# Entry
Amino acid sequence: MTHKVLVLGAGYAGLVAAKRLARQVRGDEVSVTLVTAFPDFVERPRLHQLATGQAIERVPVARYLRKTSVGLVVGSVVGIDLGKRTVTTVPDGESRVMPYDTLVYALGSNIDVAGVPGVATHAWSLVGTDVAAQVCARLRVLARRKGRVAVCGGGLTGIEIAAEVAECFPALQVTLVSGARPGAWLSPKAQAYLTRTFGALGVTVRTGARVQEVHADELALDDGDRVPFDLCLWAGGFRVPALARVSGLAVTSQDRARVDGTLESVSHPGVYVIGDAAAVTGAWGSELAMGCRSGGFTGPTAADVIAARLTGREPRRFRYRYVHECISLGRRHGLIQFLNADQSPKPVVLTGRKAIAYKNATLNGAKTLFRHPGPALVRRRHLTSETGMAHTGRAQA
Ligand SMILES: Cc1cc2nc3c(=O)[nH]c(=O)nc-3n(C[C@H](O)[C@H](O)[C@H](O)COP(=O)(O)OP(=O)(O)OC[C@H]3O[C@@H](n4cnc5c(N)ncnc54)[C@H](O)[C@@H]3O)c2cc1C
# Structure
């Protein structure tokens, strides 16, 4: 009997976790299967490029899995039974129940469209490649008549979308709407650069009021003001799917799963949660922000922890610190904010095209990690029946 590991989600966290784990165990003893909704890897940090008419690389997940023992199931996960240890998926429209001994939950997050009335009906959010392509078609039409685009959300996603749209469609009137000043947490030097760049790109920044409701052609702000638009792009924060909570995993108020220092669920041993879906406390005391980096670092750790436990070794605990925040402002301007260990911004920033090159290198680095997930030196150890079974037993307890 093989020990079955199911990895849910082929994003920044899940893809690396599956490949790296498979490299450390023996295929005849441990099977690793990756379950994911779409056949292609979705490079979410480049969706705003797709939405503005730029080509982005599409890589099938299957290509990343070539020459590995990882099995692939393309289908939506619709249910998890933590008691019976099964996952229900819908590949090819037919429901399929898959048993597991160890589960890695890496279903990520998406833009929150439920928090403010009218967003789901009247606004667009870059939640996937199809939507990005539809937004692009609309922006093209709108640009011909010098239309108005409202981008809601002064976080990094909103900042990047506003800049990209303004640069690619200079005829459009782009307004970035945000309760707080966009990038208020950045160093003074970075904030000054951001302000200059928005000025150069013609982005109007409207701050000091939050969006109360999105109507068909205008935003209603909580100070009573209205912002008319022809197209509204919503970037008001990320939200993880409810599936973890609904399944019974212990979660935070934001529905991120609570995990210990080995990324194992605090409520369900044998279930590991990584990437945006996990509430992982960083060394500085607060939760890791949702971002590719958290996925790129929690994925390898979870793989190593599971491999260690299955083969009778002591796992290493998750350790990580952010060193930078990479922000693209179109293709000509960018901003790299370097960070202190406590996450406060250093006075040092990198700007302009060098910053764009830096950010591209970082995003491409993630894809290099998909191809070569490590560890560099591999010793495929035997499953220790005692620890393998004990692990399974803990999951049942
Ligand atoms: C427009 C935009 C710009 C961004 N820019 C940046 C940036 O510059 N830097 C940065 O660090 N982060 C950025 N992010 C955030 C970043 O993309 C995410 O934080 C990151 O992708 C999270 O990685 P993950 O592996 O946890 O989840 P994801 O990458 O979201 O992967 C989740 C996987 O699970 C699959 N999945 C989800 N639900 C199901 C289901 N029910 N059944 C089966 N499969 C499912 C998905 O298809 C996907 O394969 C951006 C996001 C957006 C939308």
User: Anything to note?
Assistant: Residues 119-234 form a domain with the FAD/NAD(P)-binding domain fold (CATH 3.50.50.60). The chain is about 30% helix and 25% strand. The chain has two domains: 3-109+240-322+378-396, 119-234.
